[in-house]
């Protein structure tokens, strides 16, 4: 059996079971012409007029990723990533050339083997991927019409090759640990001292007539009993802190206050893949079996996947080719609470471990000796929190609850695709594709009876989702060359139907311990179901023309109809036009040896966005089941605009592509401008309108994104034994809301209005700390000036206030970075390979809520950041941390520019070191090729603040989420 290690030569893509190559006539172009995947087909890269970024299998195969979208992090210009959480199986959030919508989705369309894919890509084995193509402009995306406004990601799976057979085995094992460190926080002795100081200052502020000594005595006497409740030192409560000095004789009775240590550790990752591929003269096949198990570094978080794929095609007649693709996976996992969705939940492990004061233990201890307590069976006893301060979640224990509770999700995925291709004439081909996607998901939850939300009763929930999507398209392609002229015309039709079954049940009052089925619970608290459906139909066409592959023209059009909209506005056309000029083919450059390839291309077009939350966007919604005893009732929950319609994005793009110095230097310089028309925004209505949430979604705005992209690649060293390649991308863009039919509206930390960008912060302006008394200051809103007000003062010549309600609101910068990109390198020295990729971002702001919560002026059981040690204590002191004062807690902690920080960072995103054994050595033991490697993800980062995740979100906000994992794996890849 002739089997060999599959190594894709850089720049050559194999697909549909055939190596597609075209010999070039001119010495100015490549000997082997790269062919890339485009909408509904393939095309020579040199003849493209659109923006198409390609990631081949070589970039994916050794990386320890469970979701193939992770491979796009840093893969090309114009691709911006907000890293997925550390929950195993999660994928990143992707933006292509910025955000183009406010209420509709900003996610790109995913297309797998030519069929739109609405499922979760963690159901597809990354080792089965042949290539990823990111389409960024209208010329490349317009054939997808109303789904293409946010760009398109084409996923192409592997196929077999004719007259060959090969078995490939990949296996890897590694460790998973926490990547982003925790914020730096104060320890027990400092914590007691700071809490005492706040209480003393607050008492003196409230009762200055008693004097400072009385305030000191009050703070010492009430530090424990009146606030923190727990004393973990071996001295009496009132002697722990005296006159602001921590007792030097105090010794800890125990020291296990690190909740993170009890919840977080090291997980194991293992992945095993075996693939068999090959073919005959008329048929090809590819089959694979994959097993993945990831244990998260947070306890009871994991992801397991087993998948089977079969791709096959056969040329049954000279005029007929048929094929099928079948992928089935079963995934299961335990879900740690993700702070993105449960930011304030008591059982959020990050909220708890981050904000719990450093004097509280997860475990029970003997109050005298401090020894940890156990039950009669030797099991550790957990502390239920009866002796904690007001901000330390009395009555809860995240470690105990996480161990006792359950939250698991099982998913069953089936993606099937069959096609038939008819050669009607030598120049005319008809292809029809039918695809059925099924995803059945069952989420099971259980809350225990001993502690937490269901204390004393217990509860269980079941949530079932059944998604069924059917797509059928028919594509007619005519391709003809007339001397120096080449023409390709494509016409097609597509139907897509989406069905979604939803069932939820929740019961309380558990009967028997250890049984979590709903039948073991008494009270039917909630049960509901729904069956939303929608459909889409489209007619499309494309025309490509080139003259000597030197002058390029392309045009596309699509008519789409969506059931989301009313019949009067249901149909709309989307189109594009592109042109290219391969300058290097001109005679005046024929003698310029330094220029191997030079192309100028440009395009303009319009694409759409109908990805709204509602399946029937033009209908008002009511909630059923709002009953009064036996009397049925309904509740109006959403009022719709009956004429709501598409958002349309008009895009223009111009780029210069080049290959220089015998193709050792390659790159693209690109400028784009896009305007989203009829952007959906919430239109605010008066309370008297009786509309839920006092708003209605309407097409009332326009928005633009304009930016530059630069991609460079260079072979620094290129000889027989050594090859060193460096790649880099640079991106910069600006966003502006051009039109808004209402004056403005506030959304969290942002104010949306015409002339500003979508992610511009609108916050109180922080003015620092008054050195005379340590109070936090804000710039004063002049409209609220009162010369006699005690909370208004002049500091350094500026009118300021200590009252946050009088503070001046201003725009405080944007979450959009000044520029961002990636630098990667690959070094091959004989049998050794080393690759590394760095992501970077410069500028942009992030509002660090997590940090703000650690900077309270009155500690009552919640943790404190180490920066609190710089608080004001003495008149004349210059600092930016206000005085600790239990009577002055609201102002300094209010939302303001105080909590904004520069979001710049540099990160070593991934690195791989591999060794390829000489083929002569491994063939002696029956192996055709063997590679050993070590690979890592999320290896190092430098940012403005330890503990901060500067790439967590696009809108510049933070949450207590499961932060990304560091993954290091060791593996081998071999073929037989």
From TrEMBL:
PROSITE patterns in alphabetical order: TONB_DEPENDENT_REC_3
**Cleavable signal peptide:** 1-21
- UniProt entry tagged with the keyword Transport: yes
Q: How is this protein situated with respect to the membrane?
A: Multi-pass membrane protein
Domain (TonB-dependent receptor plug) spans 47-152
Query: InterPro entries in the record, alphabetically?
Result: Beta-barrel_TonB_sf, Plug_dom, Plug_dom_sf, TonB-dep_OMP_SusC/RagA, TonB-dep_OMP_SusC/RagA_CS, TonB-dep_rcpt-like
Could you tell me where this protein is found in the cell? Answer: Cell outer membrane
Question: Which Pfam families is this protein grouped with?
Answer: Plug
The alphabetized UniProt keywords are: Cell outer membrane, Membrane, Signal, Transmembrane, Transmembrane beta strand, Transport
Similarity annotation: Belongs to the TonB-dependent receptor family.
The protein's name is SusC/RagA family TonB-linked outer membrane protein
State the organism of origin: Chryseobacterium gotjawalense
């Amino acid at each position: 059996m002739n089997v060999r290690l599959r190594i894709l030569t850089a720049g050559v893509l194999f697909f549909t079971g055939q190596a597609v190559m075209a010999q070039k006539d001119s010495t100015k172009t490549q000997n082997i012409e790269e062919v890339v995947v485009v909408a509904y087909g393939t095309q020579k890269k040199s003849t493209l007029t659109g923006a198409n970024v390609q990631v081949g299998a070589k970039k994916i195969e050794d990386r320890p990723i469970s979701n193939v979208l992770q491979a796009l992090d840093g893969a090309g210009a114009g691709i911006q990533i907000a890293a997925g959480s550390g929950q195993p199986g999660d994928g990143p959030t992707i933006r292509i050339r910025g955000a183009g919508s406010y209420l509709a989705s900003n996610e790109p369309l995913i297309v797998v083997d030519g069929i739109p894919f609405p499922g979760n890509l963690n159901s597809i084995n990354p080792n089965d991927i042949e290539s990823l193509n990111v389409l960024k402009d209208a010329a490349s995306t317009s054939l997808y019409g109303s789904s293409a406004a946010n760009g398109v990601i084409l996923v192409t799976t592997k196929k077999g090759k004719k007259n060959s057979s090969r078995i490939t085995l990949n296996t890897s094992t590694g460790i998973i640990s926490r990547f982003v460190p925790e914020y730096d926080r104060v320890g027990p002795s400092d914590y007691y001292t700071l809490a005492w100081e706040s209480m003393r200052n607050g008492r003196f502020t409230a009762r200055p007539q008693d004097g400072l000594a009385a305030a000191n005595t009050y703070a010492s006497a009430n530090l424990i009993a009146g606030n923190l409740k727990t004393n973990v030192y071996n001295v009496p409560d009132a002697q722990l802190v005296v006159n602001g000095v921590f007792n030097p004789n105090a010794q800890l009775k125990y020291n296990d206050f690190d909740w993170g240590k009890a919840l977080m550790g090291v997980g194991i990752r293992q992945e095993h893949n075996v693939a068999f591929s090959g073919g005959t003269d008329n048929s090809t096949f590819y089959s694979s079996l994959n097993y993945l198990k990831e244990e998260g570094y947070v306890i009871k978080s994991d992801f397991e996947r087993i998948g089977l794929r079969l791709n096959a095609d056969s040329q049954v007649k000279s005029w007929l080719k048929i094929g099928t693709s079948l992928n089935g996976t079963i995934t299961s996992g335990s879900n740690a609470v993700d702070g993105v969705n449960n930011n304030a939940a008591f059982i959020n492990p990050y909220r708890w471990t981050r904000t719990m004061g450093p004097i509280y233990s997860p475990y029970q201890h003997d109050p005298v000796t401090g020894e940890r307590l156990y039950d009669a069976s030797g099991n550790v006893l957990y502390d239920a929190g009866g002796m904690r301060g007001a901000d330390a979640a009395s009555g809860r224990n995240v470690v105990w609850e996480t161990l006792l509770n359950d939250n698991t999700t099982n998913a069953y995925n089936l993606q099937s695709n069959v096609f038939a291709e008819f050669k009607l004439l030598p120049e005319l081909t008809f292809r029809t594709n039918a695809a059925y996607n099924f995803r059945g998901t069952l989420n099971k939850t259980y809350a225990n009876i001993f502690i937490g939300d269901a204390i004393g009763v217990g509860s269980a929930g079941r949530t079932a989702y059944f998604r069924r999507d059917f797509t059928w398209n028919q594509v007619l392609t005519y391709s003809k060359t007339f001397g120096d002229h080449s023409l390709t015309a494509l016409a097609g039709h597509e139907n897509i139907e989406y069905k979604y079954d939803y069932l939820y049940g929740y019961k309380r009052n558990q009967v028997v311990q250890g049984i979590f089925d709903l039948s073991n619970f008494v009270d039917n608290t909630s049960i509901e179901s729904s069956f939303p459906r929608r459909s889409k139909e489209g007619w499309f066409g494309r025309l490509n023309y080139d003259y000597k592959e030197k002058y390029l023209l392309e045009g596309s059009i699509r008519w789409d109809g969506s059931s989301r909209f009313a019949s009067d506005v249901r149909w709309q056309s989307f189109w594009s036009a592109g042109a290219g000029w391969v300058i290097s083919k001109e005679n005046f450059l024929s003698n310029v040896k330094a220029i191997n390839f030079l192309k100028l291309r440009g395009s303009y077009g319009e694409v759409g966005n109908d990805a709204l939350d509602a399946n029937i966007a033009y209908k008002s919604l009511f909630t059923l089941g709002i009953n009064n005893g036996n009397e049925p009732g309904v509740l109006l929950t959403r009022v719709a605009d009956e004429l709501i319609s598409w958002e349309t994005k008009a895009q223009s793009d111009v780029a210069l592509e080049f290959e220089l110095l015998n193709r050792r230097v390659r790159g693209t310089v690109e400028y784009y401008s896009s305007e989203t028309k009829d952007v959906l925004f919430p239109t605010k209505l008066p309370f008297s309108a009786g509309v839920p949430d006092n708003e209605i979604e309407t097409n009332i705005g326009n928005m633009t994104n304009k930016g530059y992209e630069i991609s460079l690649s260079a072979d620094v060293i290129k000889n027989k034994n050594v090859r060193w390649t460096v790649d880099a991308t640079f991106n910069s863009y600006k966003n502006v809301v051009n039109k808004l039919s209402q004056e403005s509206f506030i959304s969290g930390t942002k104010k949306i209005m015409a002339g500003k960008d979508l992610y511009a912060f609108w916050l109180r302006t922080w003015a620092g700390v008054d050195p005379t008394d340590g109070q936090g200051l804000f710039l004063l809103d002049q409209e609220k000036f009162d010369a006699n007000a005690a909370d208004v003062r002049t500091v350094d010549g500026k009118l300021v206030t200590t009252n946050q309600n009088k503070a001046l609101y201003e725009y405080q910068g944007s979450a959009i970075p000044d520029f961002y990109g990636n630098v990667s390198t690959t070094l091959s020295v004989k049998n050794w390979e080393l690759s590394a990729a760095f992501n970077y971002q410069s500028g942009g702001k992030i509002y660090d809520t997590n940090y703000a919560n650690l900077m309270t002026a009155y500690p009552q059981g919640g943790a404190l950041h180490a920066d609190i040690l710089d608080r004001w204590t003495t008149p004349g002191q210059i600092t930016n941390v206000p005085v600790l004062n239990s009577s002055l807690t609201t102002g300094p902690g209010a939302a303001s520019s105080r909590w904004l920080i520069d979001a710049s960072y540099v990160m070593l995103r991934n690195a791989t070191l591999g060794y390829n054994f000489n083929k002569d050595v491994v063939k002696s033991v029956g192996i055709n090729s063997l590679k050993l490697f070590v690979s890592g993800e999320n290896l190092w980062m430098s940012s403005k603040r330890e503990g901060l995740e500067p790439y967590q979100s696009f809108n510049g906000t933070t949450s207590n989420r499961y932060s990304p994992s560091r993954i290091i794996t060791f593996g081998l890849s071999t073929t037989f």
